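#lab-general

N.A. 3:47 PM
ok so I finally got the sequence cleaned up, no stray characters, all 283 residues accounted for. can someone with queue access submit it? mine expired

B.Y. 3:52 PM
send it over

N.A. 3:53 PM
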Amino acid sequence: MEQIDNFPQNEILVTEKQLTVKQGKKMRKNIILSSLILLAFWLRSTTIDSSTKQAIKIDNDQVHTYSERQGRWVILAETSISLSNLIKEYESTEEEIKQFNSIKINEIIPTRKPIFIPFSENYIQTLSNKGLGRDTVLSDYRDFVWPVGTVNAKISSKLGLRRNSMHTGIDIACPHRSPVLAAADGVVTGAAFNGNYGLAVFIQHDINQIQTLYAHNSFLMVKEGERVQKGQIIAFSGSTGHSTGPHLHFEVRYQNIVLNPEHYIQVQPILDPKLAIAKEPNP
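B.Y. 4:20 PM
back already:
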């Protein structure tokens, strides 16, 4: 089992269960100080220039992206639709699927782990015509997007002392195997099983040395060293590690000091598809 100290030293140094109340109080002071400093920078830079918001396409339950292609991650053993029918529906080919998933031509496509099936341009157009494309939201490049790509996901536990230990992030309640999204552009610095965090993804972002952590996933869709884009699916939520039910544990850190994620993610996410700014426009 891979432990937390196997990650680079500038990564997570503590787990949710390893902090005493005294350490928790000290960490809370650090959180407040660091959050105020970074929040001041965020507010100042956003106030100075409000023209930096861009339309960001967000992966959701219907559409995923991988290697700059739209498609969908599928676990064949858990779907009632056969591979041949999926290939026909998505207008893909077995050869293309094997290429995207690094499967040799003479190997069998696995049925119990996610495989990425790319969509044809025609199928993407069909989805768009039905209003089922990726959601599009306006986001400043300094902001983080909501890290769960399904409707009605909401915070169930906040950062702070919890049962005499420090809860170092926020928990987002969501259905099992909801899309987990990269909060901002960055590089994956860890993607593996990690003790109490279970299957976890660590991302180093381009802005201000900020790091994010996505824990308790059921499957990881990225590998260490990969570059990811804001809103791209990186995992499916789950309940691995020290967890009592399906959710995403999400952390934001600056130089190993935990920050309040609610200061950096955009306001409460889309609770209803109708509230989205827009669906992906027709190509």
